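Dear colleagues,

For the upcoming journal club I promised to circulate an example of a predicted protein-ligand complex. I picked one with magnesium ion because it came up in last month's discussion. The inputs are reproduced below in full, followed by the predicted structure.
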Amino acid sequence: MSHEFTFQRQYRGALQAVLLDWAGTTMDYGCYAPAVVFREVFKRQGIEISIEEAREPMGAHKKVHIRQITKIPAVARRWHETLGRPCGEADVETMFTDFIPLQLACLAEYADLIPGTLETVAAFRKRGLQIGSTTGYTGEMMAILQEEARKRGYQPDSTVCATDVPAGRPAPWMCLANAQNLGVFPMESIVKIGDTLPDIGEGLNAGMWTIGLAKTGNEIGLNEAEIDALPPDDYDRLIDRAYLRMNQAGAHYVVDGIADVLPCLDAIESRLARGEKP
Ligand SMILES: [Mg+2]
């Protein structure tokens, strides 16, 4: 009989760390900084793209993001109509080369913290959680953002960029590198929090609990004042769509913004205490 039963090890301890995204999660309400620059680099090639097209692959490594925009059927069609040839890898390289200085030049303009960030980070610390971070920005871009964040009182313990690992989101490598930097395991003792579908993908792929932020980031893609000015019906439609998309991506929890995540941590710790895994 004995070979018919097995025992499974369960982590029943507390949460040890959170991994936060940057734009749309802790700063840059509406995730505007990359979106405006993606439109500009396509414009320099003679191609107009909509803000929705610019935002669609958000969360990925920025060069991967440019390549993914070129593969949106409507963009590919306009490219071919305008330039008489398909967009190739050399065009992606050219646009990424244009992207870097344009993004560096305007990052600091979009560096204000999202309301509730400092209070929530303080609450994380009070719970004994370490704070890591992941981003689709390059190391050079992050150097600027980290300095702007520090001036505003936010300093995570670890930051890993898409350019530090073999592949950015949705691959899990940035999350695993953070775990290593922080000296934290198992992965089910860590929670990933972010505003895009690739954020949710990287958290799940790393075996972590994952929380999506529907209101403050790329899914709605508007800043706080713009959201406040929306007619209620429009807001309801946009926020419902964001919650649905993030839930369908597999997020364990979806909330409006970082200010709303603390109750989710309580719920996750109850689930861990019962022996549940992400
Ligand atoms: Mg983001």
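Two points we might discuss: The radius of gyration is 20 Å. The chain has a mean pLDDT of 96.

See you all on Thursday,
B. R.
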